[in-house]
Amino acid sequence: MTSAAFLGEGLRTGFFLALGIGAGAVFWALLALSGLAVIFQIAPTLLWAFKIAGGLYLVWMAIGMWRHAAEPLPVLTDAPPRSAASAFRLGLGTQLSNPKPAVLLSAIFIGTVPPGTPIWVLVGLLAYLFSVETGWNTIVARIFSLDATRCAYTGAKPVIDRCFGGLLGLLGLKIATT
Questions:
Q1: Which residues lie closer than 8 Å to 130 by C-beta, 6 or more apart?
Q2: % of residues, the chain, pLDDT over 70
């Protein structure tokens, strides 16, 4: 969804999408740091259910990618791109609806952030996470906003989407079964 916006609406929209994705990652990280990891340790069945639901969600997304791989990209129009707020909400909603970051960040923080870590370290960790998520997605937005990238991707879209759909499906199965 976000890469289609990168391709069709350009860098500005992509940057605000990236900000929303970064904010969503920070939200999941805050949950993980504030006790989600402890809840998963206390109630491993909840983690198991969350992982199965998250894995099945990824498989569902993979099936959608595979099925729609041959569909052409949206046609660029002269319509104005979505507003900054709308792009931010799309990025945030996309990140918050994806259970993978919650599972991943919880798993990382259980093993690497000891209890009693100073607040300034936690704030720095969240700022770093936001910077990396936003920066990476802004780079992707920049690359996908270029005409040359759009042309190259358009020609290879079915193969790329099916490859990534297959990998996403395998990841979903791995998360759900381990």
A1: 22, 23, 25, 26
A2: 87
Taking the C-alpha atoms of residue 50 and residue 175, their distance in angstroms, rounded to an integer, is: 10
> What is the Cα–Cα distance from 131 to 42, expressed in whole angstroms?
31
CA dihedral 100, 119, 132, 74 (to 10 degrees): 50
pLDDT at 2: 53
First CA to last CA distance, the chain: 27
Q: Which SS3 state, helix, strand or coil, does residue 156 take?
A: helix
Tokens 């259910």 correspond to: 49
Task: State phi, psi for 71 to the nearest 5 degrees.
Answer: -70, 140
What residue ranges in the chain does DSSP mark as E strands? none
* Residue keyed to tokens 């099925």: 67
Count CB atoms within 10 A of the CB of residue 141: 25
Cα–Cα distances in Å, from 103 out to 25, 32, 58, 107, 132? Answer: 11, 9, 13, 6, 18
Instruction: Convert the pLDDT of each residue in 51-74 to its tens digit.
Output: 787 778 778 888 998 998 888 776
pLDDT in tens, 160-175: 899 989 998 898 888 7
d(Cα 76, Cα 155) in Å, to the nearest integer?
A: 16
